Structures are given as C-alpha cells and as structure tokens.
Amino acid sequence: MKITKNIIIDNIKTLFYALIIAVFIRSFFIQPFYIPSSSMEPSLLVGDRIFVTKYSYGYSKHSFPFSPPILNNRIFWKKPKTGDVIVFKTPSDNRTDYIKRLVGLPGDSIQFIEGDLFVNNNQILKSRISKSDTIYCGNKIIKVNTFEEKLENGKIYKTVYLKNYSFQNSDIFVVPEKHYFFLGDNRDCSKDSRFLTSVGYVHENNLVGKAQFIFFSSDYKIGSILSFWKWHKTIRFERFFKKIN
Residue 14: which CATH number? Predict the structure, then answer.
C-alpha cells in the first residue's frame, strides 16, 4: 500500500514539473499555433501549425497563459520590423489571437488608392506573378491575382487580390504612438487593421511573438488527421519546417 502511494505521489510530482517546464518554454521561448483561417494565404494555409518565438519583441502580460496582469508594459522590448508576420491579441477583447503581416509602424500613414497600397505617400511596389490562381476565402474558392510586394525596407512577400479589388480606396490611416498597423496577405479576405471597430491599430503590449516556421500542415478539407489511410493526401509534407517569410 505504501509503495503504491509513493508511486502516485511521484507521478503527480513528475506531471507538475512537466507542466511548469512546458509553461516556462511556452511563455519565454516558443509557442505553437494553429492557422484556422485563410486570411494569410498564400503565405499560411488553413491547417498549418507554426512556431512563434516569444522573445522576439520582449515580453508583456500577453506572453503568458491567460494574460495575467503582472506587467503593465513590455520588458526587454525589441521593435518589430515591417514585413514581420506577427501573432497578436486583438484590441477588441485582448484575448483572441490573430496573425497578420506588419505594414505600418508608429507615425506611419497608410492608404489604399485604386487597389494599391501606399505607406507614407509612397506606393508599395507590386509585381504581378500570376493572374489565374485560386485560393480559399472561408469555405469559398475565389479567383485572384497573385503579386510580389516589396516594402521600403526591402522585405518581399506574396499577396493576393480579387480581380476587381473589393478594397480599392480608403481614408488615410495614421498609426498612433506605440501602435502598429497589420494587413492579411489575402487582402480581400482579411479582417485586419483596416477595420477599426474590430481590429484597428494594435498596441505594442498586444504583440505575442514572431511567426518563424511551419512545423506541420494538413488539409482538413480532404479528411481528418485521424484518418491515417488518407495521410498521403491530407498531410502537406512539403510544408514541414518551411520558414515563414
């Protein structure tokens, strides 16, 4: 009886220590995330599992599980760069995780004119590389033009736009101090900083971490990951350990 009791206590201790180590790694170093929407296609697909580094921009209360009110500001702060793909807590509830591309820094002005993106009155270079691609927007398949965009700091990435540019023109967005402006790469199928009531400008304290690479990916539209006999179709092996640009 005593031996059994000792075994139970030892197992509880092991689980407790394992939990502490997991929380420590998740809070200070790296955290996995699942991509549930198509707002970042073609860079990120629904079903991608990614690793996000928590130390990239320092730490805030949102670095920790359940965002405990232990930090009022960021510590070990490192400024993000335009073009970074970042996970952040939405300002509307400070709870929901979003992932988007950083386009505007504090003080920047952002505007769309006839479907083209302008930052600080400078048009972002956009080169079309395909006009016959199809991607998802929710459960719908849409036809898009695919472009390479190049930011002023030299960052190059792919974006997609509907052929009729549903978001053609906008007012000028001026990014407030200590805030950032984000866009989805799937420009006509993304709820991002253009929508001020739902996302809007994101405070630096809401940044969770930088998306670094995909470690696993599966297409749930074909079948469940539990259906091992379909793995040759559902698992996207070519995306394993792909660096996020």
Answer: 2.10.109.10
